[in-house]
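Researcher: Sequence recovery benchmark, item below. Answer with residues only.
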């Protein structure tokens, strides 16, 4: 008999539990489950959960903590399931390796066709009142996760207005901005060559009225969004420092 270790994530926010529907082929076809999967050799359960949710739903699970475990026999396999409460999620869950996702209420969840290994846990969550797994610590955990990962959150839906971000790289803070160009997204350090402070202030737009230039909100320098070259203002002729990026999914990540 094979023995597998499996992790599953419990994320409840505003009284809604995140569930994923299994593909119509393979094991337990079409049933709803708590998202997760097998722990690979060398992984901790928390690392496995983070990886599985990235692959399955395109999100980053933050602050997983043990909630319950159980052992079940499924055919020729013995499964040890560890359920982890997730303190927060970065990104919007979407069905990358599952059929669909939903956020089920306390009334809806028990009525769904749930995978047998998860049914008891969902019933226990219902009995406990479907308490949110997010806590007062969640915003701080999310902020930290947003800063530490290479992926630039929000880059998947980059619009005309540049996106500012903060990253911790090699032990130092990098403030950056991501902007659309004719060649795709480009990233620059969000530090003005005139005075080494960020270009943005008080939520003002970083785009000139005609949309062709980035504007430093401090003293009005204009930068060509395609090249980062300052074309007007006190630092004319100088450039915003570029940050190397690479595509990741629908967005971008910073290169080391
Ligand atoms: S700090 Fe940017 S123009 Fe002065």
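Model:
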């Amino acid at each position: 008999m094979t023995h597998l270790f499996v992790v599953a994530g419990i994320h409840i926010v505003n009284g809604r539990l995140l569930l994923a529907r299994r593909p119509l082929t393979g094991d337990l076809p079409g049933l709803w489950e708590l998202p997760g999967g097998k722990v690979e050799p060398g992984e901790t359960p928390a690392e496995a959960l983070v990886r599985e949710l990235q692959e399955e739903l395109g999100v980053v699970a933050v602050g997983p903590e043990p909630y319950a475990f159980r052992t079940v026999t499924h055919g020729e396999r013995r499964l040890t399931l560890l359920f982890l409460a997730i303190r927060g999620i970065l990104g919007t869950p979407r069905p990358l390796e599952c059929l669909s996702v939903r956020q089920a209420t306390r009334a809806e969840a028990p009525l769904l066709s749930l995978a047998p290994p998860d049914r008891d846990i969902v019933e226990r969550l219902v009995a406990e009142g479907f308490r949110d797994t997010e806590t007062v610590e969640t915003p701080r955990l999310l902020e930290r996760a947003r800063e530490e990962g290479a992926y630039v959150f929000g880059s998947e839906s980059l619009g005309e207005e540049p996106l500012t971000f903060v990253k911790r790289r090699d032990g130092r803070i990098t403030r950056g901005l991501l902007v659309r160009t004719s060649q795709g997204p480009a990233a620059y350090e969000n530090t003005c060559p005139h005075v080494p402070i960020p270009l943005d202030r008080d939520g003002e737009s970083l785009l000139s009225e005609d949309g062709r230039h980035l504007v430093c909100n401090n003293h009005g320098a204009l930068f060509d969004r395609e090249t980062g070259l300052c074309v007007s203002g006190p630092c004319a002729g100088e450039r915003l420092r570029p940050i190397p990026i690479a595509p990741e999914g629908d967005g971008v990540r910073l290169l080391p």
